[in-house]
Design brief:
alpha/beta, Udp-n-acetylmuramoylalanyl-d-glutamate--2,6- Diaminopimelate Ligase, Chain: A, domain 1, UDP N-Acetylglucosamine Acyltransferase, domain 1, 10-stranded mixed sheet, 8-stranded parallel sheet, 31% strand
């Protein structure tokens, strides 16, 4: 998430009441999670295991809970609770805005787009031309929808990321300030849920078709011309490249990549990155032919045991 205008390190430190290491006028342009940070961004880290990764990332401002040596060309914000202060910044730069009318003034709807009764459209939403939005769809703030997009009834676009920190008092949610971006010619079925990014975008590529009752987690990037069948669940920060097919009830864990033109059979569970151009099946998902050979071998176990008993 980029800020509307550049801020200084001192200004950011004042917002969250933290110490800082660096020159007061060090430029700050935005804030992002570590997998999408660029120069000028703030990234937060609150566990020693990830200190090095954050300090060596593309981010030039590190919100951290320990005083450490500051890398050259970077700045630090020292906080007793970086998670809390990252949320404070999210709320400051992208606060919740109540919708005061059926279609906010900040929303743009393109030529020949049809919006059926009962659709909710949030603030700063952009919908392209020749789209069809069916009844009772909810489109949250800052969503971007391209041309020739169809969204069926009951779908929610832009709900919060499922991202929590466990504390003694319960779970604290990491605030979502990102967006959902649907490219041209995307088709979304009925009853789907697509979470917005925490600070970046959840993106569905051009020409991708999504069946009913599919869930897509925060910051996931789905490529062009993918087919995703009913009841698929995709966790956050997943990369699905172009022309991938996920059949019904496939489950995908977070932070992995599925290569271009991969085909995943129904009810498979994907727990690691998969190469493109292959067919997969099972839990954990593996090469289709290999998995069926394993199943065939398992079925022979009773026969083998029976044969061993007869030998005795």
């Amino acid at each position: 998430m980029k800020f509307p205008q550049a801020h200084t390190l001192q200004q950011i430190a004042t917002i969250i009441s933290s110490e800082y290491v660096g020159v007061p006028d060090f430029p700050v342009y935005g804030m992002n999670e570590i997998h999408v940070v660029t120069e000028g961004d703030i990234v937060f880290v609150d566990h020693p295991k990830y200190y090095a990764k954050a300090l060596e990332s593309a981010a030039t401002i590190v919100l951290i809970n320990k005083k450490v040596d500051c890398p050259d060309g970077k700045a630090l914000l020292i906080s007793d609770d970086p998670f809390r202060d990252f949320n404070t910044l999210s709320e400051y730069f992208r606060p919740f805005q109540k919708v005061e009318q059926t279609q906010p003034v900040s929303t743009k709807v393109g030529h020949s787009t049809i919006v059926q009764p009962g659709v909710f459209i949030g603030n700063n939403v952009s919908i392209g031309e020749h789209c069809l939005i069916h009844a009772n769809v909810s489109i949250y703030d800052h969503t971007v929808i391209g041309d020739h997009v169809t969204i069926h009834a009951g779908t929610v676009i832009g709900s919060d990321a499922f991202y929590y920190k466990k504390r003694d008092t319960g779970y604290d949610q990491l605030k979502s300030g990102g967006r959902v971006v649907l490219k041209d010619k995307v088709h979304i079925g009925a009853g789907c849920t697509i979470d917005r990014g925490v600070t970046g975008d959840t993106t569905i590529g051009e020409g991708t078709k999504i069946d009913n009752q599919v869930h897509i987690g925060h910051d996931t990037n789905i490529g062009k011309k993918c087919l995703i069948a009913s009841q698929v669940g995709i966790a956050g920060c997943v990369v699905i490249e172009d022309d991938v097919t996920l059949w019904g009830q496939v489950g995908v864990t977070s932070g992995i990549t599925i290569g271009s033109k991969a085909i995943i059979s129904a009810q498979s569970g994907i727990s690691k990155s998969l190469d493109g151009g292959k067919s997969y099946f099972g839990t954990p998902a593996d090469d289709f032919r290999k998995k069926y050979k394993e199943i065939a071998s398992i079925r022979k176990i009773p026969e083998i045991l029976d044969h061993m008993k007869k030998k005795k």
